[in-house]
Amino acid sequence: QVQLVESGGGLAQAGGSLRLSCAVSGNTFSINVIGWYRQAPGKQRELVALISRGGIINYVDSVKGRFTISRDNAKNTVYLQMNSLKPEDTAVYYCGAVGNWGKGTQVTVSP
User: What's the confidence (pLDDT) of residue 41?
Assistant: First the structure.
């Protein structure tokens, strides 16, 4: 019903920036909340940021002040702007909605 495709991952140095994109297609009318998640090797997948249809936004404490989630409804795209990157941000980043996940995009931050 819903398809999500992440892009924008890559390599960055500590203190650098990346912007991730999540292109959403399918039954987008059914989506009330879209989230960015990440999973580092040996760790559980964790929620990074959420944005609701009404524009309510939440972040995990570790990224507050550094990451910004936003959306462009006309393009059916959700973004995650990541600034002041830290090595501990290294993970595969996924977007998810209504129980569906993209395939993820790798973010690697060197010290």
Answer: 92
CA distance 86 to 51: 23
* Of residues 111, 82, 62, 61, the one with CA closest to residue 9: 82
CA angle 98/100/105 to nearest 5° reads 130
Please state, rounded to an integer, the average pLDDT across all residues of the chain. 96
| Residues belonging to the chain | 111
DSSP string, 5-73: EEE--EEEETT--EEEEEEEEE-GGG-SEEEEEEE-TTS--EEEEEEETT--EEE-GGGTTTEEEEEEG
pLDDT digits (tens, 9 = 90+) for 42-61: 999 999 999 999 999 999 99
Asked whether the beta carbons of 78 and 67 are under 8 A apart, the reply is: no
Q: pLDDT of 71-81, one tens digit each? A: 998 999 999 99
